[in-house]
Amino acid sequence: MCTRKAALRFILVLLSLLLVLKFNVATEIEDELEELLAVDEEVEREADGGGEKLSEAEVLSKAQRIVIELNNDNTERVVNGNEFVLVLGYAPWCPRSAELMPHFAEAATSLRELRIPIVMAKLDADRYPKPASFLGVKGFPTLLLFVNGTSQPYSGGFTADDIVIWTRKKTGTPVIRISSVVEAEKFLRKYQKFVVGQFDKFEGTDYEEFVSAAKSDNEIQFVEVNQVELAKVLYPAIKPTGRFLGIVKSEPERYTAYDGAFTMNKILEFVDYNKFPLVTTLTEMNSDKVYASPVKLQVLVFANIDDFKILLDPLQDVARTFKSKIMFIYVAIDDENLAKPFLTLFGLEESKNPVIAAFNNGMSSKYLLESKPTQSNIENFCNNLVQGSLSPYFKSQPIPDNTEASVHVIVGKTFDDEILSSKKDVLLEVFTPWCINCETISKQVEKLAKHYKGSSNLMFARIDASANEHPNLQVNDYPTLLLYRADDKANPIKLSTKSGLKELAASINKYLKVKNVKDEL
User: Fold this and answer.
1) pLDDT tens readout for residues 49-72
2) Catalytic positions, written as ranges
3) Domains in the chain: how many in total?
4) Would residue 37 count as lying in a domain?
5) Which of 68, 169, 336, 472 could form a cystine bridge with 174, CB 3.0-4.6 A?
6) Spatial distance between the Cα atoms of 79 and 397, rounded to a whole number of angstroms
7) In the prediction, which pLDDT does 288 show?
8) Which BP terms does GO give this entry (predicted)?
9) Contacts from 22-30 at CB under 8 Å and sequence distance 24+?
């Protein structure tokens, strides 16, 4: 009897434990959210004066606590148990992850204050590879929106405001409706850039196209009003018409009105061409958006911050003249990741002085302002760029002295005169300093030059393709040997770089009538 009672007691205890575990699993996420709400209320009380004023670090710390930490145990429950979840996959060692995380935490706070029904979560994908694979995190940082457990790629910007705007649009609020002057003034204090639409009624084809554009755009907050008085708070220069659309930015060129057809595609095109400042500062966070701009002509200004401050006013004046035709971009000249790759294309990677360059992304052409960066010179440079009369830039080393050289050094600036316009036959070695096999070919060219030293109609030359360019020199493999015959410079003959010295000499003799060859190989 005692044994039967003990067994029954054990079964009851076991069932109780199973019920408790089931309840804990089902309510764990709710407890996490309740804790996050408590944190949020604490932040709000202290922000409203209900407590001591928080330092910036304390505000950030509390904001980060609003974000759920995902791990091996809770990832699937969080993602599958909520309608909307925005996940940040990061790695502690990743600099871009470190840069994004404070913005993500700040966005979480803002979305909580706006009562947007979304869970904000982050996963150390380096520490937890299994949930990272489950979520689809393949690089760092990665942002993914899960809607009822199904992922959607993030396509917005990377500041806190960018994340908030994108998230509101994807969770059902593509347009903010303003109904009072107080709301309009509050909106102005919060948003630095936005698209405003004014309609007599929030209905009809034009209005529907406006909302469709707001849903399709991933970066800018759209706002709507139905009273001219409210529209004037947001856009003071608005005219009293039945409908209006314009973009507002926080810069000298603050207001731009739209005068096109009210179709989604046309509105989006207007936004794409007018959303950037007159002069955009390139950063790691906005580089993707800048490079994706539909404005194909881009003028890049490389300078240190002090030189840029001097150039800014004249640059803005010029940018205003070429608005929607040229995108003006400032790049800190000492930025290794953003500036150096561009400057290397011009052979100016060591430059400390301001450099003004231009690119036609539609044609992959590059241009360089080679005069002083005055306003008039910059304006002429841009005018020629727009008209298509600007000569593309090809980098070149300084012109060398080849008086005593057996193998002439060719640079970009001398390619025409010494190769294409020369009446001699020319064997040109094309090399780069980093080429492993180039040294062997260089030695062979030196020996060939000595062998044909007595020939008055054959010249040997070499060019460093990493530092010199010419439109008629399109070489991708190094080393390359090109034989330019005097009577057909447009069609150089490519000689094998795998041939021995005698084979190369035989090839030269085959294609050319060489005179006065004395030395034997």
Assistant:
1) 444 554 555 544 555 568 999 999
2) 94, 435, 438
3) 4
4) no
5) 169
6) 58
7) 86
8) protein folding; response to endoplasmic reticulum stress
9) 25/77, 28/74, 28/77, 29/74, 29/77, 29/78, 29/81, 29/82
